[in-house]
Design brief:
It is an enzyme of class 3 (hydrolase). With about 200 residues, this protein is α+β, with helices and mostly antiparallel strands. Helix content is about 25%, strand content about 30%. The chain has helices spanning about 25-40, 75-80, 140-150, 165-175, and strands spanning about 5, 45, 55-60, 85-105, 110-125, 130-140, 185-190. Strand 4 (about 85-105) and strand 5 (about 110-125) form a beta hairpin.
Length: about 200
């Protein structure tokens, strides 16, 4: 089922997600609905707070980045095959140079800004079968994971840009909160609640 994506300004996007157990109600359905929602919106990642759930769960599928011709064949193949569910994730280490990349977010449509993140991460998490993993990722995969991980920490990519850039996008953010933005996927805007 395609879920509405929560828009910028909704308090759930600022909550630190709660850890969940393997007995969390309808967990498999939540995960399946999140994948369906993400694909419907042409995203590469989606965190539970973005569908109104303040829990430590996010999903990633980097395949849309795999046809970037600036990348090596090896990088393209890695991105094509990378689809994972992360539950109760903790980033243990961020390493390497910070590098900029133009990021967007399904909860903040029509806003894109350069964000600087570390090139390599070590992350501990459970998969959808509640098997524990500790993995190291770098490049675009690490970046997508860091972006989604921020969501379960109550952080948005707009928190990582300069004050000047925040000022420049203020009107766009206001439009999102007021429900004046019209992405081509289902959204729930804070100003529209209770109407």
């Amino acid at each position: 089922m395609i879920l509405p994506i929560v828009g910028y300004g909704d308090p759930v996007l600022r909550k630190k997600g709660e850890e969940i157990s393997k007995d969390h109600p309808e967990l498999k359905k939540i995960i399946a609905d999140m994948y369906e929602t993400m694909y419907n919106a042409y995203g590469v990642g989606l965190a539970a707070p973005q569908v109104g759930l303040a829990i430590r769960l996010f999903i990633v599928d980097t395949e849309p980045f795999s046809d970037d011709e600036d990348l090596s064949k090896e990088e393209q193949e890695l991105l094509k095959g990378f689809k994972k569910t992360f539950i109760n994730a903790t980033i243990l280490k961020e390493e390497g140079e910070e590098w900029g990349f133009n990021e967007g977010c399904l909860s903040i449509p029509e806003v894109r800004e350069d964000v600087y993140r570390h090139e390599k991460i070590t992350i501990e998490y459970y998969d959808e079968d509640f098997k524990k993993h500790t993995d190291v990722y770098d490049g675009l995969i690490a970046r997508v994971i860091q972006h989604e991980y921020d969501h379960i920490e109550g952080i948005l990519f707009t928190d990582k840009i300069s004050t000047l850039k925040k000022t420049l996008i203020k009107k766009k953010l206001q439009n999102i909160m007021e429900g004046k933005t019209r992405p081509d996927y289902k959204m729930k805007f804070i100003a529209k609640k209770g109407r």
